[in-house]
Write a structure and sequence with these properties.
globular, Rossmann fold, 5 helices, single chain, 5-stranded parallel sheet, alpha/beta
Length: 131
Amino acid sequence: MVDVSIISGSASDEEVAEKAWTVLKEKGITYDYQVISAHRNPDRLDEYLAGSDAKVFICIAGLSAALPGVVASKTKKPVIGVPVSGKMMGGIDAVLSIVQMPKGVPVACVGLDNGQNAALLAIRILDLSKL
């Protein structure tokens, strides 16, 4: 059983994921890390989500940044999106993709490449069960 699932859409996003798992490790929070693209591996993503016991999902994605929204559409658990900076638009495309979710698909969004804040937000969400 893990508290937080970190999913990145591409192996090239691992540096941002590492920022998140470093904070989680320091705080003693259990986590799992997966690289699963919502576009290239939708069936694998569905299987992973169906079998995951994580309480919070951190989804790291660049470009169209569909991953956080896809995950949020398939779970009732909290989803935190981390937009990744890119070469084409500096990452603003990823920010807008995560921020502009349709009604009924809530995704929290932290700053570009800010895996640390995603982990800290996940910890605050987990701490709510202790109140």
